[in-house]
């Protein structure tokens, strides 16, 4: 009984704090509403915090921080929020917010492989955004193992997270287990999309990016072959392969798939061994190689160097090699790797905002949202 009284006191205290910071009492709200009606300045009724963020132009993480602690945001942001609260006559569901925060402020972040610098970088960005939204990030890696991925979901269930941001393994994931989890816990997927699982998906537009690279390589030299793993771990590889074939046919070239053996996430080793095999067996019908990802390309470059082949754009070079993803080490290879960059910042920001919005909204999304960000061509020394 005492615990219930304390909880009620927390909620009432939070209500009074927000009223003092720009959230009106019922009497004040009625007075201001009547004033706006008389002057013809009434704005549309805001039903939930997601709509409030949209009309006010203030990000969800900033709003979350404000409603948790108004003093935690900059004075300029606080003034904007309080002006918007008054203008749109919006009062958040304080009871629900306190109930959620009293239960948990943990947000799970799951990636396939923490040792992969690509996932380490995007996880770092998401961690900062989750903290900025007033939550505690819990970072877990699957180590490329589907059993570990399911184990991570069970670990998160045990701590009752407010929500989860997940980049699934993909082809070897258990989709039904992930679907069941997402039905119980607010979940947003990023990087890898699995069917229609999760309330939202945020990722890279693989089709747009692959087309841009194919166009560039065909315009500046011989048309490329597509160098990939025969059974890739990441579903994005299939999307890139399919787009490569479509673009090459549209440009009047025959697609050439060079598929090498290899399993798991040791992509550099697979690329190294694969390059040696295709060069020794003369399996390249062209001098231009488009690798499915940067890590394969890094292994390919190393093997080419060991075999005495020059890679680059200049006269006398034997091969041109390009990748995809803008791996953090791609700018330090020799030659530097021509690639497509993913917008790490936008993917991380949009994923975090989508999840926090889902956690704090008064109702679930009516439809699953899919957001894709374009890639950018980085022309470097290798192609």
Automatic annotation (TrEMBL):
Matching InterPro entries: Cro/C1-type_HTH (IPR001387), HTH_LacI (IPR000843), LacI/GalR-like_sensor (IPR046335), Lambda_DNA-bd_dom_sf (IPR010982), Peripla_BP_I (IPR028082)
Record-level Gene Ontology MF annotations: DNA-binding transcription factor activity; transcription cis-regulatory region binding
Keyword Transcription (UniProt): yes
Residue intervals of the HTH lacI-type domain: 47-101
A family per Pfam: LacI
SUPFAM superfamilies: lambda repressor-like DNA-binding domains, Periplasmic binding protein-like I
Alphabetized UniProt keyword annotations: DNA-binding, Transcription, Transcription regulation
Signal peptide: none
Name of the protein this chain belongs to: HTH-type transcriptional repressor CytR
Organism: Pelagimonas varians
